[in-house]
Amino acid sequence: MRDKTQTNSAGPGDGLIRAGVVIFFLGAVATLVTVAPLFLGSHPFPTYMFGLSMLMAVGFLVAGAGVLRSVAAGRRHARGAGR
């Protein structure tokens, strides 16, 4: 019997992983913008830019939650197929 899941369909956790990658990328850009004045010798950016740099960690956690959700769904599927 063939599995009815298509290869290009989104599984559980895929949306979280994609959102985490986007958030991480935004945090990486904010980090580069925050650090650039140190190398260019200009005035530093406001404090909120340092807060935006924390988006890297938030994106990493969101993507990690997506991976854990995907793993849990895979384990549930494997348990159901074994019976």
Properties at a glance:
mainly alpha, 0% strand, 83 residues
Describe this structure in words.
The chain is mainly α and 83 residues long. Helix content is 75%, strand content 0%. Helix 1 (14-40) runs antiparallel to helix 2 (47-53) and helix 1 (14-40) packs antiparallel against helix 3 (55-82).
Helices and strands, with pairings:
Elements: H1 14-40, H2 47-53, H3 55-82
Helix pairs in contact: 1-2, 1-3
Q: How are helices and strands ordered from N to C?
A: HHH
Counted by DSSP, the helix tally is 3
Query: Describe the biggest sheet?
Result: none
- Shape from CA axes? rod-shaped
Helix content estimate: over 70%
Overall mean confidence score, pLDDT? 86
Distance between the termini: 15 Å
- Beta content: under 5%
The secondary structure category is mainly alpha
Radius of gyration: 19 Å
SS elements, strand count: 0
Low-confidence stretches: none
Quick summary:
This protein has three helices and no strands. The longest helix has 28 residues, at 55-82.
